[in-house]
Write a structure and sequence with these properties.
Radius of gyration: 21 Å
Number of helices: 11
Shape: elongated
Largest sheet: 6 strands, parallel
Helix content: 25-40%
Length: 299
């Protein structure tokens, strides 16, 4: 249980509602910032503006999956007001306060390090990332069906990257009857692709391998689908870029060539916010309880 814990939930989308529900069930006291347009009320949670929160008594801060943008602005769909996280706000929190986010960025890393506060990026955890790949795969399949005029069965699908999402995507499209090839750099990943009965290829040969692809699914957060690569791609090819913003695709050149390229970095929150929220909520509940137990043990 989290009795006595005071937690600030700052911004977010529908996934955060499952987080709020879980933490209130664990008896934490929650302060919701950026939720003034939310009609639903939770026992044990109060809506506050950023300036009204007493951060000096906050034990944990939960940010949205994307954390903040490069200027500290926190995205929230339940507010029309700007919500900004600054170094000054962080320094008002107790030294033991932990900040939880999905992914981080240079701005968030810098201000948390300057304030000497602990940061936990949930998507760096294998369990969260693997669970989260399930709604990601379903959303990718949905997009592939919506944006093509051919079946997945029998089509040529190229998956770029064999991380936790790439592996799940490749396996799912193979199960649907697609001819799946997977690009990777590491020899052990190429061996695993072969073991999965898929066609492996070195990413250094991407421009050549991509010539027959009907669907390309990118999971690599690095410019990988460059103009040189896209120039070799059939114009009917659909690109679904699952990498975090800005993705790994040259979207300007893709549009110029007439190739449909879709950036979809937050599919779980779009196609299955309840499930995606429960994944985050369960992880956060466990982590915050462990943090509380550790602090009690030090007293």
């Amino acid at each position: 249980m989290l009795t006595g814990m005071q937690i600030a939930v700052i911004g977010g989308d529908a996934r955060q509602l499952e987080v709020v529900r879980k933490l209130t069930e664990l008896d934490a006291k929650l302060f919701l910032v950026g939720f003034e347009q939310l009609d639903h009320a939770f026992t044990g949670a109060v809506k506050e503006k950023m300036e009204d929160v007493n951060f000096g008594e906050i034990d944990s801060v939960i940010l949205p999956v994307r954390g903040t943008d490069g200027d500290g602005k926190v995205e929230t769909i339940f507010s029309n007001e700007d919500v900004v996280l600054t170094e000054a706000i962080i320094k008002r929190t107790p030294p033991h306060c932990t900040f939880y986010t999905g992914i981080s960025n240079a701005y968030l890393d810098r201000i948390l390090q300057a304030a000497n506060r602990k940061q936990v990026s949930l998507f760096e955890r294998d369990d969260v990332a693997i669970y989260n790949s399930i709604p990601t795969v379903e959303g990718t399949i949905m997009m592939a069906i919506q944006h093509t005029d051919f079946t997945i069965h029998g089509s040529s699908v190229a998956v770029l990257g064999l991380g936790r999402v790439g592996m799940s995507v490749a396996r799912a499209f193979q199960a649907l009857g697609a001819k799946v090839m997977v690009g990777a750099r590491k020899s052990e990943d190429l061996a695993r692709i072969t073991e999965m009965a898929l066609k492996p290829f070195q990413l250094s040969k991407l421009a050549e391998e991509i010539k027959t692809a009907d669907i390309v699914i990118n999971t690599i957060p690095f410019p990988i689908l460059t103009a040189n690569v896209l120039a070799n791609m059939p114009v009917h090819t659909l690109i679904i870029d699952l990498a975090s913003k800005p993705g790994g695709t040259d979207f300007r050149f893709a549009e110029k060539r007439g190739i449909k390229a879709l950036l979809a970095p937050s599919l779980p929150g779009i196609v299955a916010p309840k499930t995606a929220g429960k994944i985050l909520a369960n992880a956060l509940g466990q982590l915050i309880q462990e943090d509380l137990k550790e602090r009690k043990g030090k007293k």
